[in-house]
Amino acid sequence: MAGTQQALPLARPGAQERSWQAASAAVRRRRGVVRTAGKLALTLFVFALSVIFFLPFVWMVSTSLKTDPQVYHVPPLWIPSPVRWANYPEAMTYVPFGLYLNNTLKYCIGSTVGVALSSAFVAYGFSRVQWKGRNTLFYIVLGTMMLPFQVRMIPLYLIFHALGWLNTYLPLVVPSFTGSAYFIFLLRQFFLTIPTELSDAARIDGSSEIGILLRVIVPLAKPALAVICLFNFMDCWNDYMGPLIYLRDTAKYPIAMGLEQMRNHSMSVAKPLVWPHLMAASAVVTLPIVLLYFFTQRTFVEGITLTGVKG
Length: 311
Fold this sequence. Notes:
Elements: H1 15-64, H2 68-71, H3 87-94, H4 97-127, H5 134-143, H6 149-163, H7 170-173, H8 181-191, H9 196-204, H10 209-220, H11 222-238, H12 241-246, H13 255-266, H14 275-295, H15 297-306
């Protein structure tokens, strides 16, 4: 009929095309199953690894809530019965932990501020300022990371003894103001990812190199700076060897030495120290680091990721 058109029927796929579609769907399903199985296997592996790393902490907390006979029970008791919460206040009053905590904070804060400032200045020179021999000197700085503390321990002790710094916090804090090779490396890697156009624009406006570092680079490098501050703070918090070598006065001991002092003190009194008290003190010492990492985990991971973007 004029003016009207009949709709043409849609062509149905042939048998070969239907077979190809079915084969493609089967391949996609198999790939999806393989990806799901791989993710599940990776998740189970990470979970098992996390449990292995977490078990010592669980055992420490469990032991801190036991009575002394429960510690030596065979088979071991993971859940104490009865729970003895009095171990914590008794452990905290066994030695002056408040004094040790104050000493530790002074040591950690001074060292962290020093290493952040010095490493930032040195990393800026290695990454943003062009000068002859820059890369060679940078490799030499990295080479110092191969010298363990045990090799430098005696020469450093003799130097600080000649300076009259023994039994003070100077040997623990002042070297931080000379930078750290590892932290210099991390900051340099991050500074290289910042566009040079920002520095050039500030330089055209008349800013000095120190001004560029403080006003342009440092605000952009907050994640990387947070990472090195966290690393250094945790190292100082857990440091035992340094205070053991340089400090003699027990009133200046940090908290790591306080735990050892707690164990030694129990040998010179009539009432010996029991393991639950020592585990309670260890749990209290560990808790600030766990909380610090928990609340700064996002910044920590972001800084670690960004510091390795560009070589």
